[in-house]
């Protein structure tokens, strides 16, 4: 293969060297951060294209700058493909990332001070669902709900009771460390009962939805927000799907001449953003196209199969899991009963080249910076081409790390496991890196 990054290599060896090191790191570690996967070369090529130069404030056909003939075409292509992929009435592909997308969602359907229902970060919600240190918790009043501390599953009767008591303006149905499927139809019934907007945040699970192994939120929700990196394997960016008409126009926006889709667009630009990242939108057009292929759907299904296989092999080796397994791409290793913490294990795993993150688990009594859990996901391993049988090997590595943490001899065994992990990774072809 031709040498990559020849220009950087020539003119800025410092930056080039760090990129090479990152490639080496990604090629020899098991990337098990649940929100990561591998973007294919096409996504990197599109992001590295001259669309990165273009200023295109506005929307296709209504820009504030000249020279947007092809910017218009590429944004329309992304929009058409995105709408088709998700079966959505409207899409906005300009959000810079998932958090700005969610900020725009608030701007489209709520006013500062409104009550919003969301899950705290400590209970699998996202910062932008009303967590106190985020704009969303400062500007809006979070009414929290979360998984049951014993089962780890959201109790929809409890969600309904909270909604009836608090009557929020909107409800976030979205998670980042949850092992069960979300029941959007049940969320929608509750939202309608209290005249709340229902927003699904599918940043983590969009490929499972596309593959048909997770319920589809689009028919049930007013708005669906997402990232296009994570398991979708597109550029680091966000997008927002919505209905065109607002079911609560008369109730909340009677004086507005804009429908829901128009309010979403106006929230993204000009309310929150300036010029769209056209290079990211070009890559998003590719990613949406790729996500429509059978190959991608097979990847989405395999993510779930791998997570379930890995869960089984881990439990066989005595590693406890929240909920006893998973219905998604995520496993939550459960160390609530152990002397050691989630952080002890995630740091030990990293020494061995297995990259995950420590995470609060349902019913956790430890602090957010130690935690009793480790969150692992299978999208990256699946993108590398791993199948169920490979998960046994991965489970072996992880259980050996847990054992070493227990025996307090991780520094003795880490170099050996690290070498085995690197060798194992090199037996796969990694998209975008190989
Ligand atoms: C990752 C994530 C986001 C935000 O994405 P960023 O691109 O990191 O800002 C929003 N919601 C959920 C549920 C996420 O997991």
SSE topology sketch:
Blueprint: H1 6-11, H2 13-28, E1 30-31, H3 41-47, E2 58-59, E3 62-63, H4 69-86, E4 90-92, H5 98-109, E5 115-118, H6 135-139, E6 141-144, H7 156-166, E7 170-174, H8 184-193, E8 197-201, H9 206-210, E9 223-227, E10 238-242, H10 249-252, H11 260-272, H12 278-291, H13 294-316, E11 330-334, H14 342-351, E12 354-355, E13 357-359, E14 373-377, H15 379-383, H16 388-407, H17 410-426
Helix pairs in contact: 3-12, 4-12, 5-11, 7-8, 13-16, 14-16, 16-17
The structure holds pyridoxal-5'-phosphate.
Biggest sheet, spatial arrangement of strands: 4-10-9-8-7-5-6
User: Roughly how many Å is the radius of gyration?
Assistant: 22 Å
Which CATH class of the largest domain applies here?
Alpha Beta
Report the mean per-residue pLDDT as an integer.
97
CATH homologous superfamily classification of the largest domain: Type I PLP-dependent aspartate aminotransferase-like (Major domain)
| Number of contiguous helices | 17
CATH fold group of the largest domain: Aspartate Aminotransferase, domain 2
Task: Explain what the structure shows.
The structure is a single chain. By secondary structure, the chain is of the alpha/beta class. The protein contains 17 helices and 14 strands. A seven-stranded mixed β-sheet has the order 4-10-9-8-7-5-6, sandwiched between helices. Helix 5 (about 100-110) packs across helix 11 (about 260-270). The model has no long low-confidence stretch (mean pLDDT about 95). Pyridoxal-5'-phosphate binds near residues 174 and 176.
């Amino acid at each position: 293969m031709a040498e990559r990054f020849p220009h950087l290599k020539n003119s800025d060896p410092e930056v080039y060297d760090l990129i090479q090191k990152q490639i080496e790191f990604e090629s020899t570690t098991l990337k098990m951060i649940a929100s990561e996967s591998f973007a294919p070369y096409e996504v990197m090529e599109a992001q590295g294209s001259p669309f990165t130069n273009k200023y295109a404030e506005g929307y296709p056909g209504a820009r504030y700058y000249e020279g947007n003939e092809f910017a218009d075409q590429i944004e329309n292509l992304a929009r058409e493909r995105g709408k088709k992929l998700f079966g959505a009435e409207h899409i906005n592909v300009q959000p810079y990332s998932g958090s700005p997308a969610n900020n725009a969602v608030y701007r489209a359907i709520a006013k500062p001070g409104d009550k919003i229902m969301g899950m705290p970060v400590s209970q699998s919600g996202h910062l932008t669902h009303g967590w106190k240190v985020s704009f969303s918790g400062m500007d809006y009043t979070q009414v929290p709900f979360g998984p049951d501390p014993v089962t780890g599953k959201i109790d929809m009767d409890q969600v309904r009771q909270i909604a009836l008591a608090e009557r929020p303006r909107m409800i976030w149905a979205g998670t980042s460390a949850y092992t069960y499927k979300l029941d959007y139809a049940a969320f929608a019934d509750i939202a309608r009962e209290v005249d709340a907007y229902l927003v699904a945040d599918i940043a983590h699970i969009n490929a499972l939805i596309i593959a048909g192994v997770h319920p589809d939120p689009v028919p049930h929700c007013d708005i669906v927000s997402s990232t296009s990196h994570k398991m979708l394997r597109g550029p680091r960016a966000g997008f927002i799907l919505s209905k065109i008409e607002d079911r609560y126009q008369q109730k909340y926006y009677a004086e507005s001449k804009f429908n829901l889709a128009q309010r979403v667009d106006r929230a993204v630009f000009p309310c929150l953003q300036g010029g769209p990242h056209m290079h990211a939108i070009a890559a998003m057009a590719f990613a949406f196209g790729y996500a429509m292929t059978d190959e991608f759907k097979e990847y989405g299904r395999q993510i779930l199969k791998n997570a379930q296989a890995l869960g089984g092999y881990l439990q066989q080796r005595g590693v406890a899991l929240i909920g006893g397994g998973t219905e998604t791409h995520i496993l939550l290793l459960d160390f609530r009963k152990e002397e050691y913490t989630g952080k002890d294990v995630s740091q030990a795993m990293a020494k061995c080249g297995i990259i995950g993150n420590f995470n609060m688990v349902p019913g956790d009594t430890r602090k957010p910076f130690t935690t009793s859990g480790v969150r692992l996901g299978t999208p990256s391993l699946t993108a590398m081409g791993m199948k169920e049988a490979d998960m046994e090997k991965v489970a072996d590595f992880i259980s050996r790390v847990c054992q070493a943490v227990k025996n307090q001899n991780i520094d003795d065994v880490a170099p050996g496991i690290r070498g085995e992990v690197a060798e194992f990774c090199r037996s796969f072809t990694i998209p975008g890196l190989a």
